[in-house]
Amino acid sequence: MAEKVVQVEQLRLSYQRVQAVRDVTFSLGEGEILAVIGQNGSGKTSTVECIEGLRKPDSGLIRVFGKDPWRQRGEVYKKMGVQLQETEYPLKIRVEEQCRLFAGFYERPADWELLLSQLGLADKRKRQVRKLSGGEKQRLSVLLALMGRPKLLILDELTTGLDPEARQGMWRSLESIQKGGAAIILVSHYLDEVERLADKILYLEKGEQCFFGTKQGFREYAKSRIPREEWEEGQSLEQIYLQLAPETKGLTTEGIL
What we know:
- The longest helix is centred in the C-terminal third of the chain and has 16 residues, at 164-179.
- It contains 9 helices and 9 strands.
- The relative contact order is 0.16.
- By secondary structure, it is of the alpha/beta class.
- The chain starts with 5 loop residues before the first strand and ends in a 13-residue tail after the last helix.
């Protein structure tokens, strides 16, 4: 059996007295896209930060390319690219300078000029990063995550701030990366994005794993939790998610509109 790119078993993480992640277990293979979904505070980012080696879990097993990302972060990062939810850059650095800087970190960096073109940033190469729009900064952070030709790409709220055209372009880029054999972990609040891209879904509620499996499996799981009279066949993942999410159950527009 081929080695899993990511293997997580019984992951637990606490912040003082608050358990942020409890008994999360899943795996990810080559060329698969995993979408991690759930409301704010559900443990999505905490789970991903443990995989990235940015946080040490309280207990459980995490292996990325067969290595412990907390103890062997340097080895893991040779094959992993990360786009963080928020990234700070030097105030006056220009786009092309930032790209050259990151290219210098790798023995075989990707062609950053080609990536600039593919991500619609070629005409921004001379611009200071601080003067980019929010969507342009998002695309730059993805470019930098791709610089090392990663076999695992982790993206936290990838398309936040992007207009519809840019989102569609980013989705096509990810599908191309997937075809090249890279595994992708995508943390997202956009269920149309999940429906388009994901092979597997990890659904968290208040730090607990409620579901891990395929999109069809998620529909079957949701059907078992949603009252029969409220279930409709053919619903989108977004419609299903809104019926499942604890804080949206029972909400109406009565008294608002």
